[in-house]
TrEMBL record:
Alphabetical list of CDD domains matching this protein: AdoMet_MTases
Protein's name in the database: Class I SAM-dependent rRNA methyltransferase
InterPro entries membership: Glyco_hydro_b (IPR013780), SAM-dep_methyl-trfase (IPR019614), SAM-dependent_MTases_sf (IPR029063)
Gene3D superfamilies to which the protein is assigned, alphabetical: Golgi alpha-mannosidase II, Vaccinia Virus protein VP39
Region annotation (Disordered) ranges: 1-82
UniProt key word Repeat: no
């Protein structure tokens, strides 16, 4: 971890570049252009033959869309439904949304107050400008999800990373050139649900984390007692996840880190007969895999969910889909999930993830900021 550079104040620095696919966790560059990544390193203690097969498949299929089998025509009753379901992230130790408005949000990440663009914040700011001006870091430049920019540090220049903790799991926050900081706190609603499923199962659950980003969800699942397979196309994201694993003192936990295209990986898992009890999937709207494979959300989502259904275990506890920055209603992914899970019973819960403002101390509930759509199948 870098120490703070105190040589200058009010400095503007360019954040670390090269996030690519790790933007929102995924084997594709979620909402970000492709960038050059570092080297791949298989998890020690893994299955060498399996890793070699995966690596060989990637090399043979460079720069092509991942071929998919036809989507199965499902029969049987649709699952029951709960709509809309609003899952809220309120203030918690390690994070809270302080204020939002005029296209920006002011957040507390561990020791730092951070200002970033937020298109959903259509209302005026509630707190005075003097509060916003005391932020430790402000993202400036291109405010589009795909746009690169710079971080300005009004008080003192900060290091690239800093320690964070959520759900008793340690990890690194990081200032990136795409305005993201290594964690998406609205996912705490899903992570808390997943943690409960693992803790109450009475057996080790197998969790698949597709588009796994920096590994926070994988670490939370493993610490709760799950056997985790984490898939992400970005070698840089996998490296960051391993850093988080070390920081969390979780090197001995059963996590398999896979750098691969998610579609190709789950198709191989289907052929192998692999099964998972919980699947988290957070696909981008567009991206490219590690060998140039093309991903388009609206073209490939139905096939991806169809394959995920096939690799759910008979005693599965849930399939979770989150979708960011798409022009669609949550009803679109809700109906897709219900069609996918026809004949499996259970219930499909769909709606939005929101973060609630908490004021300076995190204890003054304010407006709700919508962050993403989701759909979740549960067995009952």
């Amino acid at each position: 971890m870098k120490e703070k550079d105190r040589r200058s104040k009010n400095a503007s620095v360019t954040a670390a570049k090269g996030r690519g696919a790790e933007a929102r966790g995924g084997h594709h560059e979620q909402r970000h252009p492709p960038v050059k990544q570092g080297g791949f390193k298989a998890r020690s203690g893994g299955l060498p033959a399996k890793v070699a097969e995966e690596k060989g498949d990637r090399q043979r299929s460079a720069h092509e869309a991942a071929p998919t089998r036809p989507v199965r025509q499902r029969t049987g009753d649709k699952p029951a439904e709960t709509v809309p379901l609003i899952l809220e992230t309120a203030a918690t130790a390690g994070y809270h949304l302080i204020d939002s408005g005029n296209g920006e949000k002011l957040e507390q990440y561990g020791p730092y107050r951070i200002v970033r663009p937020e298109a959903q914040a259509l209302w005026p700011k509630a707190l005075p400008a003097s509060i916003w001006e005391k932020a430790d870091a402000i993202f400036t430049g291109d405010t589009d999800e795909d746009g690169m920019g710079r971080w300005r540090f009004p008080r003192e220049v900060l290091g690239e990373t800093w320690p964070m903790q959520l759900l008793d799991t340690d990890f690194l926050g990081r200032f990136t050139s795409f305005r993201h900081v290594g964690v998406f706190p609205e996912q705490l609603a899903h992570w808390s649900w997943m943690k409960d499923q693992v803790a109450t199962a009475g057996r080790p659950l197998k969790v698949l984390n597709l588009f796994g980003y920096t590994g926070v969800a994988s670490l939370i699942a493993a610490k709760a007692g799950a056997e985790v397979t984490h898939v992400d196309a970005s070698k840089k994201a996998i490296g960051w996840a391993r850093e988080n694993q070390t920081l969390a003192r979780a090197e001995k936990l059963p996590i398999r880190w896979i750098c691969d295209d998610a579609m190709k990986f789950i198709q191989r898992e289907e052929r192998r007969g692999s099964r998972y009890d919980v699947i988290l999937t957070d696909p981008p709207k567009f991206g490219r895999g590690p060998n140039g494979e093309v991903w388009q959300l609206f073209d490939h989502l139905a096939a991806m969910l169809d394959i995920c259904r096939e690799i759910l275990s008979p005693e599965a506890r849930g399939l979770v889909l989150t979708a960011y920055s798409i022009r669609a209603s949550f009803y679109s992914i809700h109906e897709l999930m219900r069609e996918t899970m026809r004949g499996r019973g259970g219930r499909v819960e769909s709606g939005e993830l929101i973060i609630r403002e908490g004021g300076l101390d995190g204890k003054e509930p304010g407006r709700a900021l919508s962050t993403s759509l989701f759909s979740r199948w549960v067995p009952k």
